[in-house]
Amino acid sequence: MWLYWCGVRGGELLALKPRRFDFERGTLTIAESYQRIDGQDVLTDPKTPKSKRVIAMPGFYAEEMEAFLSLLDLDPDERIFPVTKYFLSHEMARGSKAAGLEPIRVHDLRHSHVSLLIDMGFTALAIADRMGHEAADITYRYAHLFPSVQVDMARALDGARREN
After folding, report:
1. CB atoms within 10 A of CB 47
2. What is the pLDDT of residues 72-89, one digit of tens each?
C-alpha cells in the first residue's frame, strides 16, 4: 500500500524515517535510499539527483501513516521498516502466491502508481517530478499498462469527427 499510493522505490521506502513526514503539510520527503552492501545496512542518496524530492501525500495515506507511526516507539531518525529489499521481495512473492496471482515485483507497484496517474489525466512532466524521474520520457514507458486508454482515445476521436 505504501508503495502504490506514493510511488516510491523500494529502497526509498526502506530508508524512510519518521522525521521525513510532515503531517501538517501532508508531505513526505525522499532524501535517502536503503541498500545492503557487504552485509551492512547503508543509506545512500536516492537513484538520481531528481529522486530527492517532496511528495504530496493523499490525505488518507497521511492519516494512516500518522496513526501507524503513533503505534511505534521510534526515534525520528530510525528506519520505519527495518527489513531488507530481499525480505520485501520475498513477502511480495509469498503474498502473490497466497492470493493465487502471478508474481508481483515490488517495483510493479511503482509502475501501477504511474499508470494510475496517467489514467487520471496528469501530465508526464508532473508525474516525472513526483516520481523523481530525470526526464519525462521515462514516464511514457509506463503508459502501456492501461490499454483501455487506447479505446478511450478512439471513442473521443469518433466524437470529435461527429462534431465536425
Report:
1. 15
2. 999 999 999 999 999 999
Whether the Cβ atoms of residue 61 and residue 6 lie closer than 8 Å to each other: yes
CA–CA distance, 77 with 75 (Å, rounded to integer) = 5
Long-range contacts from 72-77, C-beta under 8 angstroms, 24+ separation? 72/18, 74/17, 74/18, 75/18, 76/17, 76/18, 76/19, 77/17, 77/19
Residue 139 identity (one-letter amino acid): T
User: How many other β-carbons are positioned within 10 Å of the β-carbon of residue 8?
Assistant: 27
pTM over 0.70: yes
| Mean pLDDT, the chain, integer | 88
Could you give the residue ranges of the DSSP H alpha helices within 7-164?
Answer: 10-14, 59-71, 85-98, 106-119, 124-131, 136-140, 148-163
List domains and CATH numbers for the chain.
2-163 (1.10.443.10)
Contacts for 23 with CB less than 8 Å, ≥ 6 apart = 62, 65, 66
**Integer CA distances (angstroms), 78 to 16, 53, 81, 157, in order:** 8, 20, 9, 53
d(CA 69, CA 47): 26
